[in-house]
Design a protein that fits this description.
This protein is α/β, with parallel strands linked by helices. 33% of the residues lie in helices and 23% in strands.
C-alpha cells in the first residue's frame, strides 16, 4: 500500500471517530508500529491531526471555538436542527461530548429553560452562553483523547441523576451490534448515562452507519431516537427500523 493510501485511510478513521489508536491502525493497515508512528508524525506536521500518546485526535476535537476543521459540519448542523425538536422547557438532560453535540447546543432556542448535565467542558462552555440554562459539569478525571471526564467518581455522580433525555454522539452504530466504541472507560460512562435517562437520542452522521467497533455500549432496543442528516424514509435506514426506535 502506498503512503498516500495509508494517509487517506488514517484520516478517514480520524474524521469518523475523532480519535484513533496506533495499535488499531497497525492491525487495520497491516504495517509496523514504526510505520504508523511515522505516518502520524507526518500528518501532524501537515496540521491534519493532533498526535498524542498512543494515537491521534481530530483537529476539530480540540476546541469548540473553531468551526473550520469540523468534519462533515453541514451534516452535523442538519442533525442538530432536527434534534432540537426533542428538547423542551423544563427538561433535565445529560450529554456526552463531541462536535455533533456542540453543534446541537449552538442550535438551541435562546430562551430555553432546561437543566443540562454534561461530561464535556467544551459542551458546558457552549451551554453557558444561554441565560436561562442551568449547566452542571460533571467533574472527574479528564480524558485527553475523548475530551470528557470519566472514572468512578463521574459514574457515581451520573447515577444520581434522573434525566428526561440523554444526548450522545457515537463512533459507530450497526443494526446487529448496536452502539459500539473502542475505549473501555468511556463505554462505562456512556452506559451509565443511558441508564439514568428515560429517553436516549443518538446523533450520527450517515458515514458512521453500519460500522461495528470492539466494545458494545448498547443495543438498538435501548435507543429511542436515531438522528441523522438523511431523510427519515431513506432506505439506508431500513435496518434500523426496530420497535420503539424513532428515526428522525
Amino acid at each position: 500500500m502506498l503512503k498516500k493510501e495509508r494517509h487517506d485511510i488514517i484520516m478517514r478513521q480520524i474524521n469518523l471517530h475523532n480519535r484513533v489508536l496506533s495499535s488499531d491502525l497497525v492491525e487495520l493497515l497491516n504495517v509496523s508500529e514504526d510505520t504508523i508512528r511515522r505516518d502520524l508524525q507526518e500528518l501532524s506536521d501537515l496540521n491534519q491531526l493532533s498526535k498524542v500518546h498512543g494515537g491521534a485526535l481530530s483537529k476539530s476535537y480540540q476546541s469548540s471555538f473553531d468551526d473550520t476543521d469540523i468534519y462533515a459540519r453541514e451534516a452535523k448542523i442538519s442533525i442538530a436542527k432536527k434534534a432540537t425538536s426533542l428538547i423542551k422547557d423544563g427538561m433535565v438532560i445529560v450529554t456526552g461530548g463531541g462536535t455533533s453535540i456542540i453543534e446541537l447546543v449552538k442550535q438551541l432556542p435562546e430562551n430555553l429553560q432546561a437543566t443540562f448535565f454534561t461530561i464535556s467542558p467544551f459542551v458546558a462552555i457552549e451551554l453557558a452562553k444561554y441565560p436561562k440554562m442551568e449547566v452542571i459539569l460533571i467533574g472527574g478525571k479528564f480524558s485527553k483523547n475523548s475530551q470528557i471526564t470519566y472514572g468512578g467518581h463521574v459514574i457515581n455522580q451520573l447515577s444520581e441523576i434522573n434525566a428526561d433525555l440523554c444526548l450522545l454522539g457515537t463512533s459507530a452504530i450497526h443494526p446487529k451490534d448496536g452502539l459500539t466504541d473502542t475505549d473501555w472507560e468511556i463505554n462505562q460512562i456512556k452506559k451509565t448515562m443511558l441508564s439514568t435517562s428515560r429517553k436516549t437520542a443518538i446523533l450520527c452522521i450517515a458515514e458512521k452507519l453500519n460500522i461495528s467497533l470492539k466494545l458494545k455500549v448498547a443495543s438498538l432496543t435501548n435507543i429511542h431516537y436515531l438522528v441523522t442528516e438523511l431523510d427519515p424514509n431513506c432506505e439506508d435506514l431500513d435496518p434500523y427500523r426496530v420497535k420503539d426506535l424513532q428515526i428522525i
